[in-house]
Amino acid sequence: MALPQPARATDEILSRLAALHPKKIDLSLARMERLLAALAHPERRLPAVIHVAGTNGKGSTIAFMRAMLEAAGKRVHVYTSPHLVRFNERIRLGAPGGGVLVSDAALADALDRVEAANAGAPITLFEITTAAAFLLFCEHPADVLLLEVGLGGRLDATNVVDQPLASVITPVSIDHVDYLGTTIEAIAGEKAGIIKPRRPVVVGTQPADALAVIERAAARKLAPLFVRGEHWHVQEEGGRLVYADEDGLLDLPRPRLVGPHQIDNAGLAVAALRAVRLPAAHEAGILRADWPARLQRLPAGPLLSRAPAGVEVWLDGGHNAAGGAALAHALCELEERYSRPLVLVLGMLGTKDVTGFLAPFAGLVREAIAVPVPGEHAGLKPEDVAAAAAGLGIPARVASDVGSALGSIARASQVPPPRVLICGSLYLAGAVLAANGADLA
């Protein structure tokens, strides 16, 4: 399942830039501020910014906001990470009728200019590519920039924007403990670092301890708060999404994106756009929003052809305990609609809590098949993933790759054919999409 490579020039530039810092992640703003000053501060010339932090749901919330704004005729820049198949996915440039991924030529040109301005100084790959994205965003007109935090918030490279239109904080949970802290309060403090003085903060569902941290941070900055359950509400009623705030009630369709958690993400998107009074086509956007590898039903393709006839194959990049709980909930909902044996095919990174991710699936899964995460990632050995599953009472075995795992399911001869969920890592999800011939333009 080899990943398609970017255009050669872009690939070579990214390889050079990756060597400028010995650490892949080194949270700091000093290097970013130095580089942006050398570039004449593109971060001060951006369109109106909605800055999004949180543990889970950032990408889906941005996808909903983008779809709602574009359906209302707005040009929307989008910055997200990581990418799934091509680096270009991280930078979407607003255009009439809908945004487009940055071209190889435009990306290579921006990277060349940023590399020259950096002059060989130490800087992480995420920092220098974020600077390139800011150059592109300020040079192409748009109405809004939807800006996703890379990691944390307080010291993330995106946190150089000092006057966003709004800050949005999606649900906070335990993840990236090596960088953000081991408690929910510490992690929430890092996420709340994107809050800016007197700028509105729109907050999704939070554990009580996380919400208390966010509320204190907002109070210190005199930032108006819009909190789910206090200032706005969303729920599913009769197969519809019902949203309410002080400005009134919206009766909207259920999102095309699958899972009860997408009701929450869509509601947060609506709340954010209403908080800043941006014109948006809520109904059209909810129906159009698309976000690959988030409980995505895989279409026919080379990889899917390895599975036995009749098998449903779903893909999700979820990789932490909260993500596992959301996925298990969504699969229970699918099970109620149409019952099938559930098989997990999963690979995970060594930094993740495998047991925490898998625990919600105990009693729901017929079998787990552990595979390696392709590429140069610090993936856990499949044997260790399988052992964690077995420790939860989930029958588990190992396969050499996803294709082999799907092929082996044919020998189970189950009736009805099983429902397969490939999960555990966005890097694994990207490799699966690439192997199945996905076009993410």
UniProtKB/TrEMBL annotation:
Residues 309-425 form the Mur ligase C-terminal domain. Its cofactor is Mg(2+). Pfam families: Mur_ligase_C (PF02875), Mur_ligase_M (PF08245). Its EC number is 6.3.2.12, 6.3.2.17. Residues 52-272 form the Mur ligase central domain. InterPro entries: Folylpolyglutamate_synth, Folylpolyglutamate_synth_CS, Mur-like_cat_sf, Mur_ligase_C, Mur_ligase_C_dom_sf, Mur_ligase_cen. GO terms for cellular component: cytoplasm. Keywords: ATP-binding, Folate biosynthesis, Ligase, Magnesium, Metal-binding, Nucleotide-binding. It catalyses: (6R)-5,10-methylenetetrahydrofolyl-(gamma-L-Glu)(n) + L-glutamate + ATP = (6R)-5,10-methylenetetrahydrofolyl-(gamma-L-Glu)(n+1) + ADP + phosphate + H(+); (6S)-5,6,7,8-tetrahydrofolyl-(gamma-L-Glu)(n) + L-glutamate + ATP = (6S)-5,6,7,8-tetrahydrofolyl-(gamma-L-Glu)(n+1) + ADP + phosphate + H(+); 7,8-dihydropteroate + L-glutamate + ATP = 7,8-dihydrofolate + ADP + phosphate + H(+); 10-formyltetrahydrofolyl-(gamma-L-Glu)(n) + L-glutamate + ATP = 10-formyltetrahydrofolyl-(gamma-L-Glu)(n+1) + ADP + phosphate + H(+). Pathway: Cofactor biosynthesis; tetrahydrofolate biosynthesis; 7,8-dihydrofolate from 2-amino-4-hydroxy-6-hydroxymethyl-7,8-dihydropteridine diphosphate and 4-aminobenzoate: step 2/2; Cofactor biosynthesis; tetrahydrofolylpolyglutamate biosynthesis. It is an enzyme of class 6 (ligase). One of its GO terms (molecular function) is metal ion binding. It comes from the Bacteria. GO terms for biological process: folic acid biosynthetic process. PANTHER family: DIHYDROFOLATE SYNTHETASE-RELATED, FOLYLPOLYGLUTAMATE SYNTHASE-RELATED. Functions in two distinct reactions of the de novo folate biosynthetic pathway. Catalyzes the addition of a glutamate residue to dihydropteroate (7,8-dihydropteroate or H2Pte) to form dihydrofolate (7,8-dihydrofolate monoglutamate or H2Pte-Glu). Also catalyzes successive additions of L-glutamate to tetrahydrofolate or 10-formyltetrahydrofolate or 5,10-methylenetetrahydrofolate, leading to folylpolyglutamate derivatives. This is Dihydrofolate synthase/folylpolyglutamate synthase. It comes from Xanthobacter dioxanivorans.
